[in-house]
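Sequence, structure tokens reproduced for reference:
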Amino acid sequence: MHYRLCDYVIDSELPLAELNSATAPGRETITLRRGPAVTPNQSDHEWFHEWRYPDGELWTSFAYTPGGYVCRFADIADFHLNDTGNTIVCRPVAGIPDGTLSHIFLNQVMPIVFSATGDRLILHSSAVAIGGQVIGFLGPTGQGKSTLAGSFCGAGFPLLTDDFLVLEDAGGGVQAVPTFGGLRLWDDVISAVAETAINAPDVAHYTDKKRICLGEYDLPFCNEPLPMKRFYLLEDDDSAAGSDVMFRRVSAREAVMEFTRYSFYLDLSAGAVRQTEFERVGQLAAAVPVYRLSYPRDLRQLETVREKILRHLDGEAVSN
């Protein structure tokens, strides 16, 4: 099946339910094939990088292979990428459902592939369109990026992305490129955002989050690139506990550090790649304001939080 993701076509042997069918050629075709099952063994490759959860549990390991890379998602699958990233072979652990493999491919592997093109910056961010411009939410996993994006989407503001934001240069500015119309939300958040989607399927076998395809529930999706207006960096739960909605401007230097922290990349060992990455985050920090956002994690106050963000965007002073 051929699917569309941004300006790429994906020729996939896995079903990708959140993507639309490709009806025209794309910038490039990425081939996704299913390989034989794998039995993970951490000694079978030389691993050069890893991602871990905040509690230290290993999530993803990266290794070089002849002619490319392998990305191992713990106890789920190995994804083998050739050196250009346009051919990918998924080797799942026996018994892993297709829905989990599709989720990992779309939300973990593809951001890495996009980052390898060298002409775009990919951030771990949710984003929505407001008045012809884009705001993004940055922060660690579990801090509410999808909840805020879902709240805006449920209120009629088109979603650009739930998990990874594609940024590119545009005439001296920075524009955001929509990815796909899908949200991943917990049941209690769905009840506050799109109650009709409460029976949506699970995202993956290891989580109770639901996968919401926007088109099935009349939720709006942005179909065109738009200029970036602002980023909000979500403070952690402890900082937000018991507080009102508060905003604090982040310096350009601090923004560079945060953009680097939340960037997707495959291999920064090559000097040219590293230099390009730093240049892009520097340009983004100079072009787009970033604010730390502290707010109470209370679903009953989502509408209030959303209204205060809109007032802040309009330049209105927001009382603390």
Q: What stands out?
A: The mean pLDDT is 89. DSSP finds seven helices and 19 strands in the chain. The longest strand covers residues 121-130.
